[in-house]
Amino acid sequence: MMKEMKNDAGKRNLLAEGMSGADCNDGRSVTEWKSLNYAFSALTKSSDEPLQGCSKNCFFVAALKAVALRAGTTLSKNAASFSFLNTQVQPMAAETQTLNDDKVAIDTVVNNLVYARSTKTYYWPMLYEKAYALWIDSKNPTKHWDSKDATQPDIKTIFQEGGNGVTAMMHIARYKNKVEKGALSWEGNIPKYPTIAATKDLAAADLKLPDQLTPKHTYVVFKKDATYYYLKDPCNNSVKKLEQAKLTTTKFDTWGYIYP
Questions:
Q1: Cα separation of 115 and 106, whole Å?
Q2: Which residues, listed in sequence order, are joined to residue 107 by a DSSP beta bridge?
Q3: Rounded distance between C-alpha atoms, residue 199 and residue 237, angstroms
Q4: Which helix (H) or strand (E) segment is 68 a member of?
Q5: For residue 116, what are the contacts with CB-CB under 8 A and spacing of at least 6?
């Protein structure tokens, strides 16, 4: 069972240790929630489609991208019902989170999405984020509702403390096993399973490995060669090279993969 963490207000956190929470903040704020009338997804969900927005949930968006990359068949096929694994009960059990609508948070000043975005006109990244926020918040003694619409989750507040990407992958894919801070698993040069890595809160100079990484930020590990691991940034899909020997607890809060 994973360690339960609480903030000063008694907020329960299902996201455990090794938390990261950089914000891809481009200055947007919620002015309304509305439906965009997008299709939920294509037949196959691309791992490049989800992008992080103005919330400290890089751990979640990276986890969602990693699951789409290597365990895409576990993802929801509709916009109304999502299943997440509760890792804090024994035995671990899947729980259903339903959505009553497909509204998403919009900044009408710039007419753009505030939180998760998609590189295509599909809803699934935004609705997954919304469903996950509602599910996480359902475990809190006090629920967090958006000030602009009291029927919608306050996504910014719910994810304010960040979280653990390995745990989030377990939640999303409902895989009950993990390897954390250990050797990664590969099929050739591609991860065998959903895999992430999350940096420590260090000075920028300490995270040039050799490409510059963001402090306290979670990345998807999506391939390797003889020298480097290749990481994908959930903010913008930019690719970063990481020397394999530097994937250690000196530079990273956590890394790992999940498996059935």
A1: 8
A2: 112
A3: 17
A4: helix 58-70
A5: 50, 51, 52, 53, 55, 57, 61, 125, 126, 128, 129
Rg of the chain on CA atoms, in Å: 17
Give the residue ranges of the chain where pLDDT is below 70.
Answer: 1-23
The pLDDT value recorded for residue 26 is 80
The CA distance from 141 to 51, in Å, is: 29
Phi, psi of 74 (to 5 degrees): -85, -10
- pLDDT at residue number 253: 97
Q: Point out which residues pair with 196 in neighbouring strands.
A: 220, 256
Write down all domains in the chain, each with its CATH number in brackets: 12-166 (no CATH), 185-259 (2.30.30)
What span, in angstroms and rounded, lies between the C-alpha atoms of 121 and 99?
19
| Closest alpha carbon to 171 in 141, 223, 131, 119 | 131
Per-position b or e across 183-212, b if 16+ CB within 10 A of its CB: ebeeeeeebebbbbbbbbeeeeeebebeee
Per DSSP, the three-state class of 75 is coil
- Helix axes of 124-137 and 165-173: crossing angle, nearest 10 degrees: 100
Answer whether 212's CB lies under 8 Å from 181's CB: no
Please give the pLDDT value at position 174.
Answer: 98
Both ends of the chain: CA-CA distance in Å?
17
